[in-house]
Amino acid sequence: MELRIPAGALTKDEVLRVGVEAKEDGISNLYVLHDEFVPLVKRATLMLAPRTPVSRPEKCYIESSRGYVGGDYADGWFSARIRDLGESYALAMDTVAPVVRWKTAFNGRKVSVLRCELTDSGSGVKSFKAYVDGRFVLFTSYRGVWTCRLKETPLRPEGKRRRLTVKVTDRCGNETVDEKEFIY
What we know:
Blueprint: E1 2-4, E2 19-21, E3 30-32, E4 39-48, E5 60-64, E6 67-70, E7 72-74, E8 77-84, E9 88-93, E10 99-102, E11 113-119, E12 125-132, E13 135-137, E14 140-142, E15 145-149, E16 161-170, E17 175-183
C-alpha cells in the first residue's frame, strides 16, 4: 500500500494510525488509514497492490468501508483518489453483471408505463439505456425504481407489438441485456 498526501491536504497535523488486516479471501489486505474521520482538503492518491497477480485487472477496483471508490491499473498497482482517511480500503473484483427486476407485468399485454429496479452486488451500476423498437426512450429514477411513461416518448400508441431492449452496465464493464415484448 502506498498513500500520497499532497501538501496542504490536511487542516492540521495528524499522526496516522494505519492498520493492516489480512483478508484470507480478499485480493488485497484491508487497510485502515486512520481510526477516526479525517477529511482532506485536497484528494490524496491511494495505491494498492494485489497479493497475487490478477488475471483480469479490468474487473478490479478499490472499495472503501462506504462502497465503490474506483481506480486505475498500471504496473501491478491500482490507484484511486480519496478524500477521507477515516475509511478502510481494499481491492475487490466484480465479474457479475447487474440484475434487472421488472415491476411491469408484460405477458403480451398492453402496457403504458415501464418500471424496473436495477441492482449490482459489486461495483454498482454505471449506465442504463433503454430502446423501444430501436429508438431510445428515457427512464427516470425515483427511490430506486426506474420508470418510463410511454406517452412522454416519441412513440405513438398504435396497439402493436413492441420490443423493449435495456442495456445495463456496471463500473467494471459487466453488462446485462434484457428484452421484453409488449403492446403499445
